[in-house]
Amino acid sequence: MQGVLLDIQKYFTLGDSTAGLMHTVFILCFLFAAPLFGYLGDRYNRKVILGAGIFLWSGVTLGSSFISESMAWLFFISRGLVGAGTASYSTLAPTIIADLFEKDHRTWMLSLFYIFIPVGSGFGYILSSGMAQATGHWSWGFRVTPCMGVVGLALLIFLVPESANYGTEKKTGEHAEASTWLKDISSLCKNWSFLWSSLGVTAMGFVTGALSFWVPVFLYRAQLVLQHVPPCEKVETCNTANSRIFGGITIATGILGVVTGAEAARRYKKINAKADPLICALGSLTSAPCMYLAIMLAQESILATYIFIALAEFLLSLNWAVVTDILLYVVKPACQSTAVSLQIFVSHLLGDAGSPYLIGIIADTIQGNQGDRTYLWDFRSLQYSFVLCTFVGVLGGGCFLMTALHIEEDQKKAATPPVPGTENKSYISHEEGL
């Protein structure tokens, strides 16, 4: 949606705060659906549940492209349903990977999974903005992207083996009577590594949510001040070049950052058991000054802003696969889906569920205090609002440093004996092992 945000604002006549609220609706539905998928994923067939979620968000995305400009409320509802469907793979996919792979192989498979998150996000910017530019209407971007959901559903059905349900089978067979959802939650609340790393992920979510939603609009307003582009209201289709460039940056930095973070963690863990949280702390702390420079240099040089945004995204991307790996080895396998869903719930509730809306509110307040609205203060309002992200990034780094204090102890508590006969295998067919 962010790739055509300017066109959507124009189509439905939305201000900054209302536009930010759309993302909040998406994330709130996402996070409230995540615990449900986590509960189901620890007890029932994960492939079936994940397939249903993919079908839901793909179908609703397609349907939302036909909503008329007088029914903005219906578009908000559709964004909420898309968020609920998206929660399925965010919750279940990492646990499926954890069931299929172990140790270094698991880290690399998680890296591959998290590489495709920024790649998919970047292609979303490029595809939606490109289709809007080619067809003259934003809705065509929403009609093309569900095709990727169909491809994903086919790959899930034909390529993911039944051994991906090992965690479900283990809980059903061994722990169903002894463990309940409330007991799982209580256990996780006593796991300090899980709690501190979840707060670190929350800070990352706050920053990335605000940046991914508002950066193309921010750059467009900077270009208006510099008189590089015409005003959106004076042309039929808004300039979406920033969305395509930002999408390309997101793809490149996502791939490079995830691979670099995973490899650095693999090597550093050989000499330091606290390597994972320390790498996450480094990524969060060093991204903050890059974000600040990107924000402050926008009125002087768009190129400099792109460079520092790319650096900030690269440094944040170091963390994505590593933080999930942390969760998977400090939490017992029988409640990993619940742990993932709880982390998603907390990180989105306190992170990117509200950050785009909060940035929009601050921007609208600054604009309102200036009386007459000008292009300069449209730009300044977002510029000043974005400074909040740099402070949140520093807080996230501190949370990962706290994780490092507890990581070794919690990892020992979560360790379980290997499945007989599979100690030296990177890929485990649990049905055969049992």
Please describe what this structure looks like:
The protein has helices at residues 5-12, 16-41, 46-64, 72-100, 103-135, 139-144, 146-159, 166-175, 181-189, 192-225, 241-268, 275-296, 302-317, 320-330, 336-352, 355-368, 375-414, 430-433. It is mainly alpha-helical.
Please outline what is shown here:
By secondary structure, the protein is an all-alpha fold. The protein is built from 18 helices and no strands.
Detail the poorly predicted runs: 172-177, 418-434
Gyration radius, rounded: 22 Å
Number of strands: 0
Helix share bin: over 70%
Strand count, sense and barrel status of the largest sheet are: none
Let me know the average pLDDT.
Answer: 81
Supply the helix-strand structural class: mainly alpha
Which key features would you list for this structure?
mainly alpha, single chain, disordered C terminus, 18 helices
Write the topology of this structure:
Elements: H1 5-12, H2 16-41, H3 46-64, H4 72-100, H5 103-135, H6 139-144, H7 146-159, H8 166-175, H9 181-189, H10 192-225, H11 241-268, H12 275-296, H13 302-317, H14 320-330, H15 336-352, H16 355-368, H17 375-414, H18 430-433
Helix pairs in contact: 2-4, 2-15, 2-16, 3-4, 3-7, 4-5, 4-15, 5-11, 5-14, 10-14, 10-15, 10-16, 10-17, 11-12, 11-13, 12-13, 12-14, 12-17, 16-17
